[in-house]
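BUG: 3D viewer hangs when loading the predicted structure for this chain

Environment: internal workstation, default settings.
Expected: structure renders.
Actual: progress bar stalls at 90%.

Input used:
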Amino acid sequence: MCQFITVKKSCHNLSVLRLVPKMINTKRGTVLKYFSFAFVTILTIILLLGYNKRLFSRGFFNLFSENRFSETGMERVKQFDPDRHTLYLPGLENKELFASIEDLSICRNEEVRKYIYLYLTSGREYIVKSIERSYIYIDIINEVMKKNPDIPSEIALLPLLESGFDPHAVSRSNAVGLWQFIAGTAQHFDLKNNKWVEERRDIEKSTEAAIRHLRYLYELLGSWDLALAAYNGGQRQVTRAMDKSGSKDIWELIQSGTLTRETSEYVPRYAALVLIYNNQRLFRIEKEITIPERKKTENVKLNYQMNISRLSEKCGIDIDEIKKYNPELNSSLTPPPSENYNLRLTTDSAKKFNSNIGGAYIGVITHYQNYILEQLSLDL
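Structure tokens produced before the viewer hung:
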């Protein structure tokens, strides 16, 4: 009997021992299940933070829901605290200008927020028209940018601030064109200004000159924000401000009062405009913008001096199109052959030009002194 009981107890103990691994495996499975869930959750948050910061910064965009300026609205923008009013906004410390624009961390800067608010309220018409005009010329500018990979792509949007993407813009200091070159700087970068053309208005050539200028300033000053400030106020002003303040940080220079008012506003204004341009839907401005038809363009080599009105008539090319893409022309006459002038046309118009010019009657200057026009049949 005792022997039986002993055996029975032994069997019971054996059963318990058999259950223990199952219990351990069950608990281990549960732990692994919860661990996997936690891992996926954390990974999802990291991915969202890394790639969809705009979702977490929704509270920031809500600051700009009104389209009319008010002191209350401006005060709300100034008092905005990203750490309290958004789920997440990246830190700004020691971050390069364009990286801080890309991840929105520059919105921690009160000056940038202030100019975003101003452009979306009292400056709303300006920004809408500027964005609309940008679509006419941005592809030409980007063609030049691709040839200069060392230049940040956001530089293509600098004309938003300089001219509102209006090639005919002229400033109080007589700076001209999309990139607002003054005469002395234009001459330094070989931009012509004669009776035929004003190359400060030439989209391609002025962009090439602006890139050369900005590259020089960047290599001299060591950062793009300082280069941009110098583009506006001159390298001497910026270097003097750096020497006087002992700082090479653009935001410290702005706070120090060592820059002129216009130059101290330049970088935050530019950052604000780029942010609006790149986030039109989130800033609730997208529906107000009419995007013009974007047409591919190309340069056509002219072997003769031509009257663009006659060119338009004979080749069936809209004269407004010719003027739009060739704002550098000072008159209805293209430069003489000695100028090696290229006319920019849409691809469709270039085909019309090439197929019709052989039999077209084009006004050609034969007596430059008296501007006497003769119609000559050109057999090209």
